[in-house]
């Protein structure tokens, strides 16, 4: 395996159990508190979720004669940890380019126009077999993204013609919700192509949305009687400061007909080619993550009167599909963990990590192409660590608390189940390059255990040779590499699993966390 012995040595330093008389003087104190006071409300199931680019969905899911078992295995791994498979939203920019063509003999005919985007096709036809991909990932529930941007009479006819195929493919207990339009707040300004005139405003968007969703629901009712046709996520805006805003959109009557069940917003921490973007300053920076999420929380709070859950239906590190060396590095895995748990702690009810074939921020590449090799990517390990920290969500009683720490390279969280401490997460985002000649350091955190916890706890680590690497990550000594067992979990020889830690001082656990790694501490509490 690619994991070095150095890591094993570092990891083992936490498991020595010397009883000290005093807390180690340099230790940072993590105090989760005995109760979930200050934690989020209950986190719904499938909190760790994905959004898959519309044009990449056939590659991620495969089809009935050739299902993508690798994708399915990676989704099953997350189900083992959080209780259910990730929900998947199928959409993104390309949902608003795709038009249905009943005579197309293949699932998708896409033509890339590099001046629009080199990463995904701009001209897209989908054929009847596109919808087979909804049948290859058993147990996954989907949000299907319909095209809002293409608005000629014939475009609308092609959209409505696709509806019976979509609803039949989603008639197997696999429908979560419907969506119409991706990031309409960018329709007037998108660098990939302007989709609406300057005059397009919130009221115009709401009128279009109401009209078309009503028409789609009519077709669903006819073609798929008995299937819910009323559950929509909206407005799926690309950000909080674009040319349409959430508050006037809702005020213009987005939910006047009661179709919307979730408020959907999209978020990226920064842009792939924005000046000044760096691993340490942008992703391995809890302050940056907090500020970015807090802007979404402000929008959520401003919509409180609508009493609907708020999700990030599409999100990831850096927009424009991520930056090489940043979004695909192990540092991005640490960012994934910090970002997801911070969202959870702020009552953002689900985080759909976006991915597409060849994207830099993807959790896995589903097929080999000229631009990318099929395989599990570092960010996936951040998704695994998040699911492990939350544990089984099916009871509906898991809550997450953010623990404020002084350094912007530190993040801490406590997870409670039925009011009892389930896990404590420590993310150390001090950069460390695998090629560095400096010895990798670590920091000690003193975790205060509430009364009711025994003196034993288990530590599971998110580790790799450095924050800059793109390979060699593990969680709790397990690799999900494609080459080992098609993405199924494989224990890496020599790596620690479920390390024991015992109370060192006055109800406190001392946990060493190497630079550029995270620890999920699982105490035994009642
Ligand atoms: C639909 O696909 C068929 C078969 O590839 C093609 O001949 C036809 O031109 C397409 N129709 C449209 C409207 O693009
Ligand atoms: C199913 O996927 C395989 C492998 O990508 C492909 O060769 C085949 O044409 C697909 N079938 C349909 C009906 O699209
Ligand atoms: C795919 O689209 C291109 C144009 O974008 C067209 O030339 C080609 O014939 C299409 N292929 C099929 C099978 O429809
Ligand atoms: C439809 O889109 C075009 C741009 O593609 C725009 O000029 C037109 O105003 C749109 N129609 C409506 C009703 O929004
Ligand atoms: C949608 O708009 C069209 C054109 O303005 C109109 O004829 C139709 O009745 C509307 N449909 C609904 C369901 O609002
Ligand atoms: C971390 O993010 C904050 C907020 O964006 C910023 O002020 C700070 O400079 C960043 N840290 C580094 C080292 O770039
Ligand atoms: C790690 O390597 C990158 C790229 O070579 C460099 O920019 C960065 O400063 C290095 N970080 C550390 C902590 O050495």
Features of the shown structure:
8-stranded parallel beta barrel; 526 residues; Beta-glucuronidase C-terminal domain-containing protein; 2 domains; single chain; disordered N terminus; GlcAase_C; GH; 24% helix; 10-stranded mixed sheet; binds 2-acetamido-2-deoxy-beta-D-glucopyranose; alpha/beta; GH79_Enzymes; TIM Barrel; signal; globular; Immunoglobulin-like
The number of domains is: 2
Cofactors and ligands present? 2-acetamido-2-deoxy-beta-D-glucopyranose
Which radius of gyration do the C-alpha atoms yield? 23 Å
> Which oligomerization state do the chains in this entry correspond to?
single chain
Largest sheet: 10 strands, mixed
User: How far apart, in Å, are the first and last alpha carbons?
Assistant: 38 Å
User: Hey, roughly how much beta strand do the residues contain?
Assistant: 25-35%
**Helix-residue proportion:** 10-25%
| Proper CATH architecture of the largest domain | Alpha-Beta Barrel
Q: What value does the average pLDDT take?
A: 94
Pfam families: Glyco_hydro_79C
Organism: Pseudovirgaria hyperparasitica
Keywords: Signal
InterPro entries: GH (IPR017853), GH79_Enzymes (IPR052974), GlcAase_C (IPR031728)
